[in-house]
Amino acid sequence: MIRVRFAPSPTGALHIGGARTALFNWLYARNQGGKFILRIEDTDQQRSTLEANKAIFHGLEWLGLDWDEGPNVDGDYGPYYQTQRLEIHQKHAQQLLEEGKAYYCFCSPEELDKKRKAAADRKEAPRYDGTCRKLSQEEIKKKLESGIPKVIRFILPPEGETIVGDIVRGKVVFKNDLLDDFVILKSDGFPTYNFACVLDDHLMEISHVIRGDDHLSNTPRQILLYKAFGWNLPKFAHIPMILGKDKARLSKRHGATSVIDYSAMGYLPEAVLNYIAKLGWGCGDQEVFSREELIQKFTLKSITKSSAVFDVDKLNWLNGKYIRQILPERLFTLCEPLLIEAYGNHDVEYLKKVVSAFHDRLVLIPDIVSLSTYFFQDVTEYDPGGVEKYFKTDKAKKVLETLKEKLAGLEPFTRESIEPVFKELAKELDVKLGMIIHPCRLALTGTLDSPPMYDVVELLGKEKVGLRLEKALSSLL
């Protein structure tokens, strides 16, 4: 059984990098008919919060990444919060102590800081020097009885190599002499990350550890722990980090990094899901994938080694494509509250027609507000370039006057009857149709870009069209 996990620390909202890790795990589980487990690594008591925990759930649910085991879902391998597994962690730390594979360390934070500074002065990597490994049993007993704060350190082999066989990166070799006896259980009884994740991954029977390559340096320590317990290793796949366009690691300075931020900014979850799937993974030249296609085509071997670059322009392009695919009813549900907030209450059918007019023009959902202003407010100014090009021609006044006259008497005032008026006027004045449409668009919207002209005229209605054409004519005087 393929069993993978996403194990976030609840110290903040679900960011894009974490969402990509969750997605790759979820896709692999679904592709292989396996299980996707959510485990909350909340042992950082200072930074873990209930709000962050809820934000992680919210982000995953918004993206549609459901978990087969984890919080709020039954499973045989729980608990799925690490703080509820402390007895398990402490028991296994004691086992390593009894087997001589770990030892108590009584060095104070001040002493450790001095050791780090001394190593820096010698231009060496800050490594624990193994002071407490040399303590006799009698010394250890005395220190324990005196209640001196202690941690438990894992004994690393002083020489040799630890090899990580990584599905994405291939063979990665680490020299053991560059590692040190790291802490596995802190003085407060809580496990460190490297220790807890090894125990929990093994006991939850995780088959593949798929995570960001910032964890690659942790892997040799974890492999040595697996070997110390005599456990089989899972398969590792370290996925490339995500960079901004400046090639620096993606952060808040590149814009929103929280998944829910993107929701608030007007992105569709399927567009964000599609986009982050392409960050470090690909399938030929295909850019747009349905959820089913992603599941069908995803493989770990298709993950790239090189860092992925987050490009907002590309995400925007993709979001626009997805908006054009969604049902009108869903688009209206997303746009209606924004329009009401901006322009007050209006007839629902009118709002639906406005939203429909922009269905193929929106890039972000909130764009509906700025694009549709002229459907709710009078035109107060005209595009300067448009004025020069379309209002200052020798036929502009004649075009607008004739349109005003013909449209004023038109019945019914529908697109089907409006279109012939424009075409007949173009023939009558012996000009191209564009020389009728463009001045009218400028007069009715104040812009050079709008939905199809006949739809705009119909939607504004006879009264507004007449008033705006009159206003435009007065500006020509």
UniProtKB/TrEMBL annotation:
<feature type="binding site">
    <location>
        <position position="252"/>
    </location>
    <ligand>
        <name>ATP</name>
    </ligand>
</feature>
<keyword id="KW-0436">Ligase</keyword>
<feature type="domain" description="Glutamyl/glutaminyl-tRNA synthetase class Ib catalytic">
    <location>
        <begin position="2"/>
        <end position="317"/>
    </location>
</feature>
<dbReference type="Pfam" id="PF19269">
    <property type="entry name" value="Anticodon_2"/>
</dbReference>
<dbReference type="InterPro" id="IPR008925">
    <property type="entry name" value="aa_tRNA-synth_I_cd-bd_sf"/>
</dbReference>
<feature type="short sequence motif" description="'KMSKS' region">
    <location>
        <begin position="249"/>
        <end position="253"/>
    </location>
</feature>
<dbReference type="GO" id="GO:0006424">
    <property type="term" value="P:glutamyl-tRNA aminoacylation"/>
</dbReference>
<dbReference type="GO" id="GO:0005524">
    <property type="term" value="F:ATP binding"/>
</dbReference>
<keyword id="KW-0030">Aminoacyl-tRNA synthetase</keyword>
<feature type="domain" description="Aminoacyl-tRNA synthetase class I anticodon-binding">
    <location>
        <begin position="332"/>
        <end position="473"/>
    </location>
</feature>
<dbReference type="InterPro" id="IPR004527">
    <property type="entry name" value="Glu-tRNA-ligase_bac/mito"/>
</dbReference>
<keyword id="KW-0648">Protein biosynthesis</keyword>
<dbReference type="InterPro" id="IPR001412">
    <property type="entry name" value="aa-tRNA-synth_I_CS"/>
</dbReference>
<dbReference type="InterPro" id="IPR014729">
    <property type="entry name" value="Rossmann-like_a/b/a_fold"/>
</dbReference>
<dbReference type="GO" id="GO:0004818">
    <property type="term" value="F:glutamate-tRNA ligase activity"/>
</dbReference>
<dbReference type="InterPro" id="IPR045462">
    <property type="entry name" value="aa-tRNA-synth_I_cd-bd"/>
</dbReference>
<dbReference type="InterPro" id="IPR000924">
    <property type="entry name" value="Glu/Gln-tRNA-synth"/>
</dbReference>
<dbReference type="InterPro" id="IPR033910">
    <property type="entry name" value="GluRS_core"/>
</dbReference>
<keyword id="KW-0547">Nucleotide-binding</keyword>
<dbReference type="GO" id="GO:0008270">
    <property type="term" value="F:zinc ion binding"/>
</dbReference>
<dbReference type="InterPro" id="IPR020058">
    <property type="entry name" value="Glu/Gln-tRNA-synth_Ib_cat-dom"/>
</dbReference>
<dbReference type="Pfam" id="PF00749">
    <property type="entry name" value="tRNA-synt_1c"/>
</dbReference>
<comment type="subunit">
    <text>Monomer.</text>
</comment>
<keyword id="KW-0067">ATP-binding</keyword>
<dbReference type="GO" id="GO:0000049">
    <property type="term" value="F:tRNA binding"/>
</dbReference>
<dbReference type="InterPro" id="IPR049940">
    <property type="entry name" value="GluQ/Sye"/>
</dbReference>
<feature type="short sequence motif" description="'HIGH' region">
    <location>
        <begin position="8"/>
        <end position="18"/>
    </location>
</feature>
<dbReference type="InterPro" id="IPR020751">
    <property type="entry name" value="aa-tRNA-synth_I_codon-bd_sub2"/>
</dbReference>
<protein>
    <recommendedName>
        <fullName>Glutamate--tRNA ligase</fullName>
        <ecNumber>6.1.1.17</ecNumber>
    </recommendedName>
</protein>
<comment type="similarity">
    <text>Belongs to the class-I aminoacyl-tRNA synthetase family. Glutamate--tRNA ligase type 1 subfamily.</text>
</comment>
<comment type="function">
    <text>Catalyzes the attachment of glutamate to tRNA(Glu) in a two-step reaction: glutamate is first activated by ATP to form Glu-AMP and then transferred to the acceptor end of tRNA(Glu).</text>
</comment>
<dbReference type="GO" id="GO:0005829">
    <property type="term" value="C:cytosol"/>
</dbReference>
<keyword id="KW-0963">Cytoplasm</keyword>
